[in-house]
């Protein structure tokens, strides 16, 4: 389609032919966009283009990385010492908190086993960094520097230090694309941590807030309530903080209360993230702690738990899945 | 002596830089006003190199940009095709406009592009963007004269080198 003979085109084809070609290309673009929006075929184009795209990302990122490495090289001993001390103090605090958490986890497990033998999931975390590449601001995606080589799989949950960020959408060799929870096509099964009320948080296309349109009017919700993932839908493990309720609208004539929540994760300015993969339950018996490195099998197993065959489905269907889980 | 400075290698080189500028990470305050570099460079080549940028080429560049910036596939393709069509259509007039008038037409082109993007956004059912959505075309217009001069300089330097 690319016309290669230069200079002659506009004279020979004239404005009429040009207009016809504009229509043709315009139509083609619109069809592509519709396909992308509906999630047909385009993801395979994207994953095929991954190899072409990757070197560009590295080239774009390289100068920044070089500058950062350079400045790190020449950071003074003293500031490093200070940072070291600060971090050591921080670790101590975290460890103190963890000690308590561990006994709680143990207690939790014991109580669960008293119930129906339903065992809590164990999770493994993998560190990843965001690539320093600015994507289209309307794409609601970020890139992370872990790919299929590191055992990343599609649908894996991604969190940062403060809360849930999104899920892995496409996996390439050395990097992956993460769809943020702020994407308008994304729905996240959540529950209000104070009351246990389950609902769904929809992305709104801005990183500033999520929308929870399906909360009963008379439900016990207050501003400032913490939302955590409910673990329904099998994509996101339960119990991770998502956001805080910022606005509640119980206006007259609404059949549901309209809630807005502010995400806790730094969706638009994060640097480091964690990839969560669940260890399958039966393996937990053999290996109680998260150790050992057999990422591939384990992660495949995780994927197969609730959404076998879900892989081919797109975000739209995730949204619908989530929608069905709304408690009445 | 006639030295071609509108060879495809030259055009592609500038386009690659423009694409890189679209992706380069910026603090969010600058990110919201990042001009549409690829659009500007394409406008330049449409004006200066008759018929070198065909609609098909614009479409291809748009698809590449879509894949790189992870935007909706076809979005930049559509925008570039429309820009190239309009510039080619009014090329004779645009070329002989005084600089400020040319900058104004560039503003019109970029605004038109933003309106198309707005249409796509609303079709996708996303909330309408805030006022800062209209910042990039304005910054693009301010950048345009300098970009024009820079690219002219670049071509001039190229010509000199070839002659020598």
Would you kindly provide a written description of the structure presented here, covering whatever features stand out?
The complex is a heterodimer of chains A (328) and B (164). With 328 residues, chain A is an alpha+beta fold. Among the domains of chain A are: 53 residues, no CATH class; 34 residues; 77 residues, Rod shape-determining protein MreC, domain 2 (Thrombin, subunit H, Beta Barrel). Chain A is 38% helix and 23% strand. Chain A is built from 6 helices and 12 strands. In chain A, the strands form 2 sheets. Chain A has a 6-stranded antiparallel beta sheet with strand order 1-12-3-4-5-2. Chain A has a 6-stranded antiparallel β-barrel with strand order 6-7-8-11-10-9. Chain A is globular. The N and C termini of chain A lie far apart (54 Å). The N terminus and C terminus of chain A are likely disordered. By secondary structure, chain B is an all-alpha fold. Chain B has one domain. In chain B, 74% of the residues lie in helices and 0% in strands. In chain B, α3 packs across α8 and α4 packs antiparallel against α5. The mean pLDDT of chain B is 87. Chains A and B meet through α1 and α2 of A and α1, α4, α5 and α7 of B.
Give short descriptive properties of this protein:
heterodimer, A: alpha+beta, Thrombin, subunit H, 6-stranded antiparallel beta sheet, disordered N terminus, B: 164 residues, mainly alpha, globular
């Amino acid at each position: 389609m690319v016309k290669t003979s230069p200079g002659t085109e506009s004279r020979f084809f004239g404005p009429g032919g040009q207009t016809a070609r504009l229509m043709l290309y315009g139509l083609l673009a619109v069809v592509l966009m519709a396909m992308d929006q509906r999630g047909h075929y385009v993801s395979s184009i994207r994953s095929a283009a991954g190899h072409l795209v990757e070197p560009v990302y590295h080239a774009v990122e390289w100068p920044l990385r070089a500058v950062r490495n350079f400045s790190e090289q020449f950071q003074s001993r003293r500031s490093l010492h200070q940072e070291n001390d600060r971090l050591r103090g921080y670790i101590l605090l975290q460890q103190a908190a963890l000690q308590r958490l561990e006994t709680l986890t143990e207690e939790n497990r014991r109580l669960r086993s008293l119930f129906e033998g339903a065992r809590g999931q164990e999770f493994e975390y993998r560190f990843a960094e965001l690539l320093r590449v600015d994507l289209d601001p309307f794409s609601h995606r970020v890139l992370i520097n872990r790919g299929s080589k590191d055992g990343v799989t599609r649908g894996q949950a991604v969190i940062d230090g403060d809360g849930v960020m999104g899920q892995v959408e496409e996996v390439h060799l050395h990097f992956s694309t993460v769809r943020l929870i702020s994407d308008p096509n994304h729905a996240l099964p959540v529950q209000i941590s104070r009351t246990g009320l389950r609902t769904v948080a929809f992305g709104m296309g801005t990183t500033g807030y999520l929308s929870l349109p399906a909360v009963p009017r008379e439900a016990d919700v207050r501003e400032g309530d913490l939302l955590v993932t409910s673990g329904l839908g099998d994509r996101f493990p339960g119990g991770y903080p998502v956001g805080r309720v910022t606005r509640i609208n119980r206006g007259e004539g609404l059949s549901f209360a309209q809630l807005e929540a502010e995400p806790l994760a730094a969706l638009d300015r994060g640097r480091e993230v964690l990839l969560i993969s669940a260890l399958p339950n039966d393996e937990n018996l053999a290996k109680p702690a998260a150790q050992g490195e057999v990422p591939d099998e384990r992660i495949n197993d995780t994927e197969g738990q609730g959404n076998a065959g879900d892989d081919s489905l797109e975000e739209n269907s995730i949204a619908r899945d989530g929608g069905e889980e709304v408690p009445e | 002596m006639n030295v071609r400075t509108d060879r495809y290698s030259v055009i592609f080189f500038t386009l690659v830089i423009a694409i890189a500028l679209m992706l380069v990470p910026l603090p969010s305050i600058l990110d919201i006003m990042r001009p549409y570099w690829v659009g500007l460079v394409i406008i330049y080549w449409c004006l200066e190199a008759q018929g070198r940028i065909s609609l098909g080429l614009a479409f291809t560049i748009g698809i590449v940009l879509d894949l790189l910036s992870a935007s909706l596939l076809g979005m930049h393709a559509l925008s570039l095709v429309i820009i190239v069509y309009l510039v080619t259509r009014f090329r004779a007039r645009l070329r002989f406009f005084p600089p400020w008038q040319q900058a104004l037409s560039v503003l019109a082109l970029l605004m038109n592009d933003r309106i198309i993007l707005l249409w796509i956004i609303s079709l996708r059912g996303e909330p309408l963007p805030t006022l800062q959505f209209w910042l990039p075309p304005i910054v693009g217009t301010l950048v345009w004269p300098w970009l024009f001069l820079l690219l002219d300089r670049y071509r001039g330097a190229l010509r000199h080198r070839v002659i020598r």
